[in-house]
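Exercise 3.2. Students should predict the tertiary structure of the chain below and write it as structure tokens, then compare their answer with the key that follows.

Predict this chain's 3D structure.
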Amino acid sequence: MTFENIEWLFFDVGSTLVDESEVYVDRINKIAKAAGKTHDEVYKKSIEFYRKGLKGDLETAAFYGVPLPKWQPQYENPYPAAAEVLEKLGGRYKLGVIANQSLGTADRLKKYGLLEYFSLVVASAEEGVAKPDRRIFDIALERSGCKPENAVMIGDRVDNDILPAKAVGMKTVLVGQGLSSLSEEKYQDRDAYVSSIEELPDLLM
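Answer key:
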């Protein structure tokens, strides 16, 4: 697909700009310990859920009847190519964030060296509304002054990123990073697919 008349690119954060794999390893280890199971057994169960398009860590904790361990953001790291990709794309488009994140998204992006590339950050904790609720997309479009047909949503999840963005009229790019890429739904409904953010400049420029 060709992307024409695009003015803004909006990014998800987790598993799109930021690698969360070590956080999930931590969660699986803690679920296994609480359930009295091996890491491998719990990991395999979580993968079963991810392949169904579900949140594997949450579903696995529920399956074993243990509390979902607290998210540990200190294990997050930006993908190595994130800054370079944003710098390239920022030379042609305005860049924004639409993400489900805990309080302090802008501060974390600054810590990762990524905030400088964004003209707008819209995050669920600050807005009181979370994806897939279309209102968070409407907020971003209103603040950016961008019509939906002139915007692209880039994210790793069909349910939270692709479907609601398409519902408001945005173009969409699904990024095959993170555990959501295991979902059997990953090729559905998006306008374009890339296996990593490193492929975005070739697609969009």
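Discussion points: The first helix runs from residue 21 to 35. The radius of gyration is 17 Å.
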